[in-house]
């Protein structure tokens, strides 16, 4: 059955479906200035970057699998910083 899916939809669509639809999509905030993950305060409704302390329109919301976000945070705890380069779609 997986072989048929790969043939019918292509590898990129199957990986996207497995990672985002069947898995656990999670919305994260990314700072446009320093390209690092930020956080969203749901009480006040403001997104803030923890590194450069920018907030508001400087933050962008994207969807990632929760496992990817967790990997980014674990690598940051070991002083390995991954940056997300954003392009306008």
In short:
With 89 residues, the protein is an alpha+beta fold.
- The backbone outline, from C-alpha atoms, is elongated
Q: How is the CATH topology of the domain at 26-77 named?
A: DCoH-like
Average pLDDT for all residues: 81
Question: Helix fraction?
Answer: 25-40%
Rg, Cα atoms, Å:
16 Å
Report how far the terminal alpha carbons are from each other. Answer: 34 Å
Reported CATH architecture of the domain at 26-77: Alpha-Beta Complex
What structural class do helix, strand and pairing data support? Answer: alpha+beta
**CATH superfamily descriptor of the domain at 26-77:** RNA polymerase alpha subunit dimerisation domain
Spell out the helices and strands N to C.
Answer: HHEEEEH
Give the strand tally.
4
List its salient traits.
89 residues, alpha+beta, DCoH-like, two-stranded antiparallel sheet, two-stranded antiparallel ribbon, 3 helices, 4 strands, 35% helix, 22% strand
Overview of the structural elements:
By secondary structure, this protein is of the alpha+beta class. It has a domain of 52 residues: Alpha-Beta Complex (DCoH-like). A two-stranded antiparallel ribbon has the order 1-4. The chain has a two-stranded antiparallel sheet with strand order 2-3. It is elongated.
Q: SSE layout and pairings?
A:
Elements: H1 2-9, H2 11-21, E1 25-31, E2 39-41, E3 46-48, E4 59-65, H3 66-77
Antiparallel strand pairs: 1-4, 2-3
Helix pairs in contact: 1-2
């Amino acid at each position: 059955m997986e072989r048929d899916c790969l043939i019918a939809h292509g590898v990129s669509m199957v990986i996207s479906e497995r990672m985002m639809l069947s898995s656990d999509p999670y919305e994260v905030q990314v700072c446009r200035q320093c390209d690092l993950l930020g956080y969203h305060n749901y009480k006040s409704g403001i997104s803030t970057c923890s590194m450069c302390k920018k907030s508001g329109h400087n933050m962008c919301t994207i969807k990632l699998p929760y496992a990817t976000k967790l990997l980014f945070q674990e690598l940051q705890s070991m002083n390995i910083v991954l940056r997300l380069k954003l392009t306008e779609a």
